[in-house]
Amino acid sequence: TAPPPSAQCKAQGSRAEKSERERERKKKPTRVVHFRELLSPLCFLPVFICSYMFLAPVFGYLGDRYNRKYIMSGGITFWSLVTLASSYTPKEHFWALLLTRGLVGVGEASYSTIAPTIIADLYVKSKRTNMLSIFYFAIPVGSGLGYIVGSQVSSRAKDWHWALRVTPGLGLIAVLLLLFVVKEPKRGAVEARPENRLHQTSWLADLRDLSKNRSFMLSTFGFTAVAFVTGSLALWAPTFLFRAAVFNGERAPCMEAHCESSDSLIFGAITCVTGVLGVASGVQVSRQLRKKTARADPLVCAAGLLLCAPFLYLAIMFAQASTVATYVFIFFGETFLSMNWAIVADILLYVVVPTRRSTAEALQIVVSHLLGDAGSPYLIGVISDSLRKNDSFLWQFRSLQFSMLLCAFVAVVGGAFFLGTAVYIERDRERAENYAPTGETPLCVVLAADWR
Fold it and tell me: What is the CATH number of domain 5-451?
């Protein structure tokens, strides 16, 4: 059966924003150069992520207290406008381009912190998992489309500005769907017991409770490992494959700012396909395993990362011998890496009470990006430069190869965090389902109640 309109339009908006993020990454030239030479074009990514991390707690606070549909609509509208504006900034005003790219984080923060909580208030149990899987299909699909569309539009127009003029139209469609299709559900209405009326607590009380929620914190650190690996691969995998081909003599070195290469296109296609397969297989395996154990979700997430690690290792080591084998190992590694997208979101939603979910989403976003993909591409690049002994094609390839092995190690660490989550998941889920505020819990007086 077709997914409901609300899930469809949420996925539409998420695909648009994920595609925008990946197009931002496409600005990195394909030249074989030192990492320090890439600092200028790569500065867009951390500016975006920093603004995203700063704004996520703000939207998390608002999302737990006001009308979520209007907040998302406003955020996506603003995102679309600044994206379009950034494509018209003149060359001599680099600061304006940097500012507008940073403001893109407004739309991302408004959407990613709030949309899953609306899905949680519309569905429960297995149906909620299904709807979350539809929503999180948009992440890998949008990422892959960002590589494909971004590279093709920039190549055909011979100007990267045109890649930024595609997504504002998609953002407008998402806003219209949100305003006219999605209905604002009552928080916790589909799952709260009648005798346990949920009360809104202060933001500090929310943060204090979340920090004591071991399942939430451990799964957040596990997801941080996913973000670390994903960010590193997204930024460095095409360059690594290109350097491997140059080292093997399969391609001529490219010293120009814009190099013709199929690596980004192939990697984008693999990201699309493996994302869909990974999310779908993770949900299906988890559903079957739930019949045997209540710890199924974190165990599946752990298995995904632990299985991802050896395939990443093989992909990195086989690059010098066989390009085909490398792509095959990347395919399996990214499939296992994508298994936990929807499951991690589901874990958060059932171990956190409804009135704290947007804040929990925001906290998870901040931690996973701050310790994950905000710095992992730079860390890989710095390690690569420190290992390089000279500027030969051999060391340009070898240094990046050795530095990318860190991704396999981080995947194993992330798997360990999810195994730790499995220890506490049953207790924390029962605590959230039977949550009843006490008289000592500080209540928050909410203004603008008509926004609810």
Answer: 1.20.1250.20
